[in-house]
Amino acid sequence: MQTERQANSRVGAEAAATLGWWHAHRFLVLRRFSQLSILALFAASSLYGLDILKGNLSSSTVLNTVPLSDPFVLAQLIASGHWPAETALLGGAIVLLFYMLVGGRSYCSWVCPVNIVTDTASWLRRRLGISKTTRISNSLRYWLLGLSLLLPVAGGLLIWELVNPVSLLQRGLIFGLGSGWVLIAMIFLLDLLISQRAWCSHLCPMGAFYGLIGKLSVIRINARHRERCDDCMDCYKVCPEPQILKPVLKGAANGVSPIIFASDCTNCSRCIDVCAESVFEINTRFTTEVENKK
Amino acid sequence: MKQTMDKQRRSESSASKAPARRQFFTDVARGASAAGMIGLGLTAWASSAKRSDPQAIRPPGALSGDDFLNACLRCGLCVEDCPYDTLKLATLFDPAPSGTPWFEARKVPCEMCEDIPCVAACPSGALDPALKNIDDARMGTAVLIDEKNCLNFQGLRCDVCYRVCPLIDEAITLERQRNSRTGKHALFIPTVQSDACTGCGKCEEACVLDETAIKVLPLELASGTLGQHYRLGWEEKARNGGSLVPEQLKLEIRRPENSNAN
């Protein structure tokens, strides 16, 4: 019965059937809305001078007053030997504090436009039944992060920012992409044909950086009702970092907390969407465990 | 007997640890070499990519060369605050490193706004906030690069570059020379005073030739540097209140008596 269901239905179909379409898609829709509206506000400023959000994700101003700067770019700047002006530092501090609170990799799932590209690749992979994948080490992104901060020290140049597809894409969407789409297409094809979730979960140093920022963040996904889990595997299929799910879902016997403390978690909440048994919730890291121990 | 048991136990325990340890070292070695390869590739590519096209001009107040590339956040706030859409943000294969602001003088030159909005917008200091007077900007310097085709060099009174220069008679002057072709006219030679030129590019935009005869080039490219050991006599004289070289020896002129030499 169960294997039959797995084989026949699409991810989240059961959740949609039992909980309704909206319930099974709400975080996905909200996330796309968040990503697109941030891009739209930036573009409106660039095209029509509507200055609600001006600049781009590397550095911007809200309503021409509050500065926001990407701490990862600032870190590279400082590594290259340039001490940024106060405006940029203040903007960096604001962003840093925000993601320390809501979870660093919320940036990856709720803000970053490359997420749409890689999620599309991942979705297509599932639809087309491409299962062949080249294994890339999960920790390669930390090596790349080290590299992107070390090379400016050695060479005194923001080498990563010359190619960083994340800044390239959102800059491109706001100011004109030029030939930058080549790099984005490469990431799409890499994720689709060569290695599953290669970019966001294995390579992107920016994601690694935000993961480290959010290590102690307050908002966390909680597999609070893990005793309900019926092993349908839907959450594993949609989760960009599926390796973090097994410990919280199956760790009850070993006393592992159901709260996902792993810094790789992007707080995308897609697991909440697709779970027909409503195992997951958004909680704080301080949520007390009220598990119905059997 | 005891010895063999010990040995056996030891080998058992190391057997259980060894694969994990070996796996760890393999992972580290793999990660390090992959990162190293990517790093080498990036460095090689970056060293060629950081060179801009000679005609990609930076906004006013831009720090020089690599300092600018290190300081720029690539946020585009200067581009957005430029009221004349002069500035552009470079994409991957543009003539400037990707994400950095630049402009083409021949297309849209800098209008030299008095309040310098691009500098005010820069959050990182890549455009130096110390620049208060736009006339002090040094985006580059104009160079009259083709004297053969410049109309003024042919004895015509084009003067367009001179007329549009925001610092007329300071940054571009007209130097009079004899027109040896006609023998009775003057040539008015547009001459860039590189110590006053801001590099705004209005002359380059305005040049009436199909391909402009006057071009704005980055200072690194257009200006020479005098060797440290050179001393300019007239400057030393002014600084010291007199010549550093002793007076020439004056000898009495002796002529044979009754000579008529004048």
Descriptive labels:
heterodimer, A: mainly alpha, three-stranded antiparallel beta sheet, 56% helix, B: 262 residues, alpha+beta, two-stranded antiparallel sheet, 6 strands
Description:
The complex is a heterodimer of chains A (294) and B (262). Helix content of chain A is 56%, strand content 7%. Chain A has 294 residues and is mainly alpha-helical. The mean pLDDT of chain B is 85. By secondary structure, chain B is an alpha+beta fold. At the A-B interface, strand 1, strand 2, helix 4, helix 5 and helix 8 of A face helix 1, helix 2, helix 3 and strand 1 of B.
Helix/strand layout:
The complex is a heterodimer of chains A (294) and B (262).
Chain A: H1 2-8, H2 13-19, H3 21-48, E1 53-56, E2 59-62, E3 66-69, H4 71-79, H5 86-102, H6 106-111, H7 114-128, H8 140-155, H9 159-163, H10 165-175, H11 181-194, H12 198-203, H13 205-213, E4 219-222, H14 234-238, H15 245-250, H16 270-274, E5 281-284
Antiparallel strand pairs in A: 1-2, 2-3, 4-5
Helix pairs in contact in A: 2-3, 3-10, 4-8, 7-11, 8-13
Chain B: H1 2-49, H2 65-71, H3 77-81, E1 88-89, E2 101-102, H4 117-121, E3 141-144, H5 160-164, E4 172-179, E5 185-192, H6 202-206, E6 214-217, H7 219-222, H8 233-240
Antiparallel strand pairs in B: 1-2, 3-6, 4-5
